[in-house]
Amino acid sequence: MERTLVLLKPDAVQRGLVGAIVSRFENKGLKLVGLRMEVFGRDVLERHYAAHAQRPFFNNLVEFMGSGPVVAIALAGKDAIAVTRGLMGATNAREAAPGTIRGDYGMSFSNNLVHGSDSAEAAATELEIFFGGQTIEWERSDLEWRYSVKEELA
Q: Per the annotation, does 57 bind a ligand?
């Protein structure tokens, strides 16, 4: 099972969308293996967004992400990265399809509610930054109702 990181940004938390957004991932069939809510320090956020350090929006992004609580979620499932990114929708929420998190709840390019890892390498790095390898191993009791265990998980 693939693992990925999703961040519920300060705008999602301030708007009271945490439960609604987490339920989207769980209802799809992804397994919650880590959950952490914190106002993350600049050092953590700068490490997370290091790839954007030379871009003009870097400081605004780090300040926004440090402006309030963020919920970090570790999710597991088959093709979890692609599935979470599909559920989130286009980065510019005004262009995101209805039925996606950003399409249903967002209107902004910058305040776009969620971040999700975009590759297996990014997921590994981001999960280490936000969870330090401290995620939970457990089995869903409904696994065989969510996947064809013989075909998809063999």
A: yes
